[in-house]
Amino acid sequence: MPPAFTLPNLLTATRLLMAPMVVWLIVQGATAAAFGWFVAAALTDLLDGSLARWLDQKTVLGAWLDPIADKAMLLGTLLALAWAGSVPVWLAVVVLARDAVVLGGAGAFRLLTGRLEVAPTLSGKAATFAEFTLVSLILAELAFAPGLTPWLPPLILLTAFLVVASGLHYVWLWSRKTRDFLRGRQPS
């Protein structure tokens, strides 16, 4: 079996395939089912990285596929929730803009240097955790009405703050790496 075909990568690929189902369920108003699929997807996110470390099955494919699966799930659900009026449109725009800036910076660095290493930052992980938490709680509120509504506005603001902060951090990192490359040093 090729090294890219590992259990952690299979879990990540499964999460990527689950994203359209969650979006479709939200658009259809089937929030209880969307919540279940979203929680299952979030669990695969927790498991894939842990299993890759535990089983010593870290791969380049996994390093690329994991953030793609996260972004597909989070952007898809946030856009569907914004379309349904369940989250502010501005939050979806902030997340989309941050991801576009990060992707653009990574792409520009790759074009300039001919290489790109995918490595999440602590601020990026915090933003992703906040997004997963927020979407989970919104879907739970829509599906089961557990009384989370008062907690959602502050969590929306915290998530937006973390998303913007991580975006600024990535801009700073890509700028530093580019500056180092142009000065002839190895990017750190």
Description:
The chain is mainly alpha-helical and 188 residues long. The chain has one domain: CDP-alcohol phosphotransferase transmembrane (TM) domain (Four Helix Bundle (Hemerythrin (Met), subunit A)). Helix content is 79%, strand content 0%. It contains 6 helices and no strands. 31% of the residues are buried.
Describe the protein's topology.
Layout: H1 7-27, H2 31-54, H3 60-83, H4 89-113, H5 122-144, H6 152-182
Helix pairs in contact: 1-2, 1-3, 2-5, 3-4, 3-5, 4-6, 5-6
Put the structure in a nutshell.
The chain has 188 residues and is an all-alpha fold. Helices cover 79% and strands 0% of the residues.
Query: Which CATH first-tier class would you pick?
Result: Mainly Alpha
**What CATH architecture do you see?**
Up-down Bundle
CATH topology: Four Helix Bundle (Hemerythrin (Met), subunit A)
This entry's quaternary arrangement is: single chain
Query: The biggest beta sheet, please?
Result: none
| SS elements, strand count | 0
Mean pLDDT: 90
**Helical content class:** over 70%
What value does the Rg take, in angstroms? 18 Å
Order of H and E elements = HHHHHH
Number of domains: 1
Q: DSSP strand (E) fraction? A: under 5%
Tag the structure with descriptive keywords.
188 residues; mainly alpha; Four Helix Bundle (Hemerythrin (Met), subunit A); globular
